[in-house]
Amino acid sequence: MARVVVDVMLKPEILDPQGQAVQRALPRLGFDGIADVRQGKRFELELEGPVDDAALARIREAAETFLANTVIEDFTVRIEEEAK
Amino acid sequence: MTTRVGVVTFPGSLDDRDAQRAVRLAGAEPVALWHRDKDLHQVDAVVLPGGFSYGDYLRAGAISRFSPVMQTIIEQAKLGMPVLGICNGFQVLTESHLLPGAMLRNNHLHFICREQKLRVENAGTAWTSDYQAGQEIYIPLKNMDGRYTADARTIDELEAEGRVVFRYLASGPGEVGNPNGSLNDIAGICNAAGNVVGLMPHPEHAVEPLVGTGGTDGLGFFTSVLKQLVNT
C-alpha cells in the first residue's frame, strides 16, 4: 500500500503557545540549545490504489478543505517511500 | 404562530439544552435539530450551541461543519436565516466559512471559565437589536480555543464595516479584559448581512436570575431574534 504524508503547521506569523510551552520545558529537562519549537500535525494516508497524479490532486484537495484550515495553517503533501 | 428556533445537537454538544431553555424563556419555541438530519423542521432561526462537537478532533468545529444538518444551515444562512453560533458553534461557523477568521488555542493554554464583561459594538444584527450600541454586559465565558484570529485585511474589513459585534472589556482597573489573546479584543463577529453572529461567551447561561451568576444579560440575544422574526 502506498502512503502519502500530509504535514500541517501553523503559519509562521501565528503565535503557537503550545510550541512555546514545549520550548520552555526543554532546558528544565536538560535539553539545551533549542531556540524555538513549533508544533504541528502529521497525517499518514494509506491509499488503496496507486499514488498517481489524480490521487495526489484529491489528497491536496482534502488537505486544503479539511485536514488544514488555510486561514491559520499551511500544509505539505509528500509520498513516503515504502520501507524495504 | 409561534416562532420556531432550532438548536442543533452534535455528538459532544454540551449546551444544547441550555440554549433550548433560553429560547423558551424568550418566548419562542425551541426545536431540537439532530446533526445527521438535513431537515430543519420549519425553524425560523438556528442556534449552534457550545460544547466539544466530535471531541474537537482535528480542530474545533472542523468535522461538524461537514454534518448533514450543516449543509442545510449553510444554504439557509446565505439566504438570510438568522444563525447564532455560541463558543463551539462560533468555531463551526468559521470552519463553515459563514464567518471569516479562525479560532486558536488560548494564548495562556488554560481552559478559562469566568464571567466576562463585554461591550456590544453592533446592535444592528439579528441577534443584538435588543441591546444598545456601546452597552456593557456580563456573559459567562468558558473555552479552551477562544483566540480569534484572521489576516490583517479581514480584521480591517470587520472593523470598517462594524462587524465586530462584541469586544472583551476589563471588569475593573488593573484587570486584563482580553481573556485569550484574541485580535483587537474580538469576542464576536457577524457576516455582512448581520444574520449570522458568532461569539465565544455563552449568552444562554445568563438568562435566569436563579442560576449561574444570576445575570440575565444574555436573554437579549434570544428576544432580539424573536422580535426580528415576528416583524418580518
UniProtKB/TrEMBL annotation, chain A:
<keyword id="KW-0547">Nucleotide-binding</keyword>
<dbReference type="Pfam" id="PF02700">
    <property type="entry name" value="PurS"/>
</dbReference>
<keyword id="KW-0067">ATP-binding</keyword>
<protein>
    <recommendedName>
        <fullName>Phosphoribosylformylglycinamidine synthase subunit PurS</fullName>
        <ecNumber>6.3.5.3</ecNumber>
    </recommendedName>
</protein>
<comment type="function">
    <text>Part of the phosphoribosylformylglycinamidine synthase complex involved in the purines biosynthetic pathway. Catalyzes the ATP-dependent conversion of formylglycinamide ribonucleotide (FGAR) and glutamine to yield formylglycinamidine ribonucleotide (FGAM) and glutamate. The FGAM synthase complex is composed of three subunits. PurQ produces an ammonia molecule by converting glutamine to glutamate. PurL transfers the ammonia molecule to FGAR to form FGAM in an ATP-dependent manner.</text>
</comment>
<comment type="subunit">
    <text>Part of the FGAM synthase complex composed of 1 PurL, 1 PurQ and 2 PurS subunits.</text>
</comment>
<dbReference type="InterPro" id="IPR036604">
    <property type="entry name" value="PurS-like_sf"/>
</dbReference>
<dbReference type="InterPro" id="IPR003850">
    <property type="entry name" value="PurS"/>
</dbReference>
<comment type="similarity">
    <text>Belongs to the PurS family.</text>
</comment>
<keyword id="KW-0658">Purine biosynthesis</keyword>
<keyword id="KW-0963">Cytoplasm</keyword>
<comment type="pathway">
    <text>Purine metabolism; IMP biosynthesis via de novo pathway; 5-amino-1-(5-phospho-D-ribosyl)imidazole from N(2)-formyl-N(1)-(5-phospho-D-ribosyl)glycinamide: step 1/2.</text>
</comment>
<keyword id="KW-0436">Ligase</keyword>
From TrEMBL, chain B:
<keyword id="KW-0547">Nucleotide-binding</keyword>
<comment type="pathway">
    <text>Purine metabolism; IMP biosynthesis via de novo pathway; 5-amino-1-(5-phospho-D-ribosyl)imidazole from N(2)-formyl-N(1)-(5-phospho-D-ribosyl)glycinamide: step 1/2.</text>
</comment>
<keyword id="KW-0378">Hydrolase</keyword>
<dbReference type="InterPro" id="IPR010075">
    <property type="entry name" value="PRibForGlyAmidine_synth_PurQ"/>
</dbReference>
<dbReference type="Pfam" id="PF13507">
    <property type="entry name" value="GATase_5"/>
</dbReference>
<keyword id="KW-0658">Purine biosynthesis</keyword>
<protein>
    <recommendedName>
        <fullName>Phosphoribosylformylglycinamidine synthase subunit PurQ</fullName>
        <ecNumber>6.3.5.3</ecNumber>
        <ecNumber>3.5.1.2</ecNumber>
    </recommendedName>
</protein>
<comment type="subunit">
    <text>Part of the FGAM synthase complex composed of 1 PurL, 1 PurQ and 2 PurS subunits.</text>
</comment>
<dbReference type="InterPro" id="IPR029062">
    <property type="entry name" value="Class_I_gatase-like"/>
</dbReference>
<keyword id="KW-0315">Glutamine amidotransferase</keyword>
<keyword id="KW-0436">Ligase</keyword>
<keyword id="KW-0067">ATP-binding</keyword>
<feature type="active site" description="Nucleophile">
    <location>
        <position position="87"/>
    </location>
</feature>
<feature type="active site">
    <location>
        <position position="202"/>
    </location>
</feature>
<keyword id="KW-0963">Cytoplasm</keyword>
<feature type="active site">
    <location>
        <position position="204"/>
    </location>
</feature>
<comment type="function">
    <text>Part of the phosphoribosylformylglycinamidine synthase complex involved in the purines biosynthetic pathway. Catalyzes the ATP-dependent conversion of formylglycinamide ribonucleotide (FGAR) and glutamine to yield formylglycinamidine ribonucleotide (FGAM) and glutamate. The FGAM synthase complex is composed of three subunits. PurQ produces an ammonia molecule by converting glutamine to glutamate. PurL transfers the ammonia molecule to FGAR to form FGAM in an ATP-dependent manner.</text>
</comment>
